[in-house]
Each structure stands twice: as C-alpha cells, then as structure tokens.
Amino acid sequence: MSEETPRVEREGMRKGIYILPNLFTAGSLFAGFYCMVSTVNGDFRTAALWILASSIFDGLDGKVARLTGTSSKFGVEFDSLADVVSFGAAPGLLMYCWALRPFGRLGWLAGFLFLACAALRLARFNVQVDTVESKRFVGLPTPAAASMVSATVLFFYHMGWPASYNKLLILVLIYFLALLMVSNVRYNSFKDPSLIKRQPFAFLVLAVLLLIVIAAEPVTMLFTIFTCYILSGPVGFVLTYPRRRRLERAMHRAHEGMKRQQ
Questions:
Q1: Where do transmembrane segments lie in this chain (predicted)?
Q2: Nearest one of 73, 70, 93, 89 to 28, comparing CA atoms
Q3: Tens-place pLDDT, residues 72-97
Q4: What CATH class is the domain 4-261?
C-alpha cells in the first residue's frame, strides 16, 4: 500500500500539472516575495500594496481551479506553501521593520509568532478541509490577517502618522491577529451559494453606494472593512456563547441518559 501511493503520485506528475491556477499561485508567491524586497528597501507602503495583490491572486487561483475543473493535490500543496510566504513571512517582516523593531526581542518575537501561527493555521485547514462546513472558517484566515496588516500600514500613511505614533497598539494588534488565526473562532467564508442567487433590488442599490464610498476613501474603507471582519469573529463567539453552552449541556444530559440505559 505504501509503495503503491507514491507510484500513483509519480505517474500523476508525469502527466503534467494544471498551468492556469498554479500561475495565479505563483503570482501570489511573487507578490509576497516582492513585499519582502520592498520591506528590506524601506518602501513600506509599496510592501503593503503587494500583500493586497497577493491576496487577490490567492483568491483567484482557487476560483479558477474550481471553475475550470483543474483542482489537484499539487495545487493545494503549492498554494499552502505560497501562503506561508505571502501571508506569514511577508507581513511578519513588514511589521517588524516598520514598527516593531524598537521593541527588540518582543518585536521580532511578535513577527515570528505571526509567521508560526499562519503556518499552523494553514496546516490545520488542510487537515480539516473535508470535515468543516464550507460556510465558516475555523480561525482567522491567513489572507485576512495579512490584509489587516497591509491596511494598517496604508492607513497610517494615509493619515500622515509615523509608525511610532502608536507602537504599542501595533504590537498588540500583531499578537491579537496571530492568536485569532489558531483560535476556534469562526469566520464567514462568503462561500454561501445563496449570496449569488436573486436578491432584492435594494441590495443592488446598497452595493452601488458601498462602491461609491470605497472609491471616495479607498484606504479608510479598506481599513474599516478588514477591522469589521476581524472583530466579527470574537463578537460572534461571545454572542453565541450562551446558545453553545445550552447545546453542550443538552448533549451532556443525553450522553448521561444513554449511559444509564446501558
């Protein structure tokens, strides 16, 4: 059995790989690498923009693979490795060089924790992908965490604030994002099929108004949108806690009842 599986995988590789979705993944990896190059060169605003570009490529590769029927195990593994670079190493390095260097050891440990939690989040996602409902992510998605880092840098530049304006808040943000990635807090994946079905006309009007607001203040709205998404997980976790407790107690009583019957 152990000899047959590698042979099947090798034969699959000889047949070739799907180019289109993996090109998008390579684009995401390139954007993450160039983010680090810009960070080392001290161009933090450009680095932040490349993280957003990487997020766009990352969103496209999966959709292209599903729409064209070109999903593969190779693509899944390549995507995860690219995400570790683009949404773990790149934003961690960006935050350290931009704002966390004055904290010394506490600063670079924050950057490393962000990278480690991103890698753990991706590994857990790959293991649980077939057992967790598709409408919800368990833990903050790594692209969202990295995009929040990017939005924070761009927002500070937009407001004319230096990185030293509130270094402690930035340090807390990095630790907060890192822990959310490996938490059991659930986030909306926006993969609900009902979202693309017929909706009331008012939804279209609201969507157009939202686009106008985003076009008027793109940096501020980007920061606001990602902040709301980041906070939606903890807020939802707190609000649904009483219901979860009642469900757990009901399951416990049912389990005890089955034990007594046995």
A1: 17-37, 107-125, 137-157, 169-187, 199-216, 222-241
A2: 89
A3: 788 888 999 999 999 999 999 999 99
A4: mainly alpha
